[in-house]
Design goal:
two-stranded antiparallel sheet; mainly alpha
């Protein structure tokens, strides 16, 4: 895949990730209203799309795609509209953390062994969603403390911790399974773009063999 086609592919797939994260979050979520508040939390697979985007495209593009889609979902739902800025920031971070582990550390796109690719994709997903599992409830608490006041922040903390933990586990399973199912076909079609710097101990593809 040449540079021009790779750029177009990445832009198109970023848009697809944004659209898919919006659809999955908006239409496939289980919304849970929190008693005593006008707020809600939800069980959904939108985070799985963020992780999948980061595994396929790298952290920045995957994170941006997922963040845009889920932020639009928040903006179009009166229950979640105040959470839109928080959503954009945290979903972008999921992508950045996942992408950094997968591509900067694991060189995922260049992995030749399916088991190695699986291990790095799983490690990256766990890191990205583990980050979100910790920081989403904490960030949400202080965000709602400032915007809505202490009573609402305290009432929503435990439900947020519970659903964020459930979402982390289910999104890890789904994103890793989908990525590893798609990877062989994308690689065979030359549609698995190289991301990150080549590994120092990996011979260059352009190096000629000795005569």
């Amino acid at each position: 895949m040449n540079q021009k086609n790779t750029a177009a592919y990445k832009i198109a797939l970023t848009g697809l990730i944004a659209a898919l994260s919006y659809v999955v979050f908006t239409f496939l979520q289980i919304k849970i209203l929190i008693p005593g508040t006008s707020d809600a939390t939800s069980i959904h697979l939108g985070n799985a799309v963020c992780v999948l985007g980061a595994l396929l495209l790298g952290g920045p593009l995957g994170g941006i795609g997922g963040a845009i889609g889920m932020t639009i979902g928040d903006l179009l739902d009166p229950v979640y509209i105040l959470s839109a800025p928080k959503t954009f920031l945290l979903k972008l971070c999921i992508g950045l953390v996942t992408g950094a582990v997968a591509h900067n550390l694991g060189r995922l796109s260049g992995c030749q062994n399916a088991k190695t690719a699986f291990r790095w994709s799983l490690t990256a997903a766990v890191c990205g969603l583990g980050f979100n599992m910790i920081f989403d409830p904490v960030f949400s608490y202080f965000y709602k403390l400032i915007i809505l006041g202490k009573p609402i922040a305290e009432l929503t903390l435990l439900p947020n911790i519970t659903t964020t933990s459930i979402n982390a586990v289910t999104s890890t399973i789904v994103s890793v399974a989908v990525y590893n199912a798609l990877r062989p076909a994308l690689k065979k079609a030359g549609m698995l773009p190289a991301i990150g710097k080549p590994s120092a101990n990996r011979p260059s593809a352009h190096k000629k063999s000795a005569a």
